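Researcher: Let's do a round of design. I'm pasting the structure tokens now; please hold your answer until I've finished.
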């Protein structure tokens, strides 16, 4: 498969948030057929959803990968699990959340994966982070 560029959003609001993001960056850059091209600054954001919880640290990374979108998703889920992620409730607190936001120019509509991510238009911080990468690193 020809390598494509994928934007992956990183988020954490439990325990050592910065360490969770650092782990994710390192692991994503070490995936087979993948290299980490650029990262945005880390920013703190208020949590989304109805449940009271701590603030998030968020960051966007740009990967070049020959993994398919579904393969990349499987790796993202495994990295989340490594950091103790438990999927109990939507919009709940999490040690690590990895979302594939964009994958080249592809549109993907699978049961477990939608690209572009359906929340991209609603998350200004993702838009800022992508813009930062696109204007300063690519």
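Researcher: That's everything. Go ahead.
Model: Designed sequence:
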């Amino acid at each position: 498969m020809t390598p494509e560029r994928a934007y992956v959003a990183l988020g954490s609001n439990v325990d050592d948030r910065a360490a969770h993001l650092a782990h994710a960056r390192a692991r994503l850059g070490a995936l087979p057929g993948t290299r980490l091209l650029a990262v945005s600054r880390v920013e703190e954001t208020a949590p989304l959803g109805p449940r009271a919880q701590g603030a998030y640290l968020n960051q966007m990374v740009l990967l070049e990968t020959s993994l398919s979108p579904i393969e990349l998703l499987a790796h993202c889920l495994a990295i989340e699990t490594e950091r103790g992620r438990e999927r109990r409730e939507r919009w709940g607190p999490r040690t690590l959340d990895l979302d594939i936001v964009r994958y080249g120019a592809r549109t993907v509509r699978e049961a477990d994966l939608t690209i572009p991510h359906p929340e991209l238009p609603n998350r200004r911080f993702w838009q800022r982070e992508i813009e930062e990468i696109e204007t300063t690193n690519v």
